[in-house]
Amino acid sequence: MTSQDLMKQQAAAAALEHLEEGGLVGVGTGSTVNFFIDGLAKMRSRIAGAVSSSEASTRRLRAQGIPVLDLNEAGELEVYVDGADEATRRLHLVKGGGGALTREKIVAAASRRFVCIVDEQKLVERLGRFPLPVEVIPMARGHVARQLARLGGEPVWREGFVTDNGNHILDVRGLEIADPVALEGEINQVAGVVTVGLFARRPADVLLVGTSTGVVTLTRDA
Ligand code: 5RP
Prior knowledge:
Order of helices and strands: HEHEHEHEEEHEEHEEHEEEE
Number of domains: 2
Shape: globular
Strand content: 25-35%
Bound molecules: ribulose-5-phosphate
């Protein structure tokens, strides 16, 4: 295992302590979350089940014997656990490297607490080094790309990739993300955008950062 994987695994293990006994947990997507699912499997009798943010996580949860519920049946969740591609100390995030951003945003919005798990390489002063994913309705791809270029970005179609919702992804480089809350709103207003991978209007509540010397906990209230 690489040192980065070890840090992801530590952050994922720390997130297990944030779960409610007998409750439902929202589960994100990605390699860090996979460590979380593997940890969850060892304590599955202590949770009622999970709501998943992707087909990939659903398969992994079910393979571990964890019941997966539809969000409409589950209602509001106590806690959502997910990774990120970038995170700031204000707990604003860029997500969607794995292409699951829309369902991730929905499950995060439906959860009282969002616990984000990352390794220290994801912690940044300002968002924008990682290309910003934008999920788009396929017929709107060209239109949305032109609007993103007007905002100063360089959008690239993630060719060959189709989201769980049947849509396309544009990865946008070169955006100046000085105000993540404003930019999230602006991009989400473009016709044809399903959602942008900025999580600033609903940021994480707790950020667990795996580092070479242990897990650092950052909270929104701090
Ligand atoms: C998927 C995501 C992931 O949380 C993000 O890409 C981080 O992935 P990983 O844990 O593999 O680094 O947003 O859509």
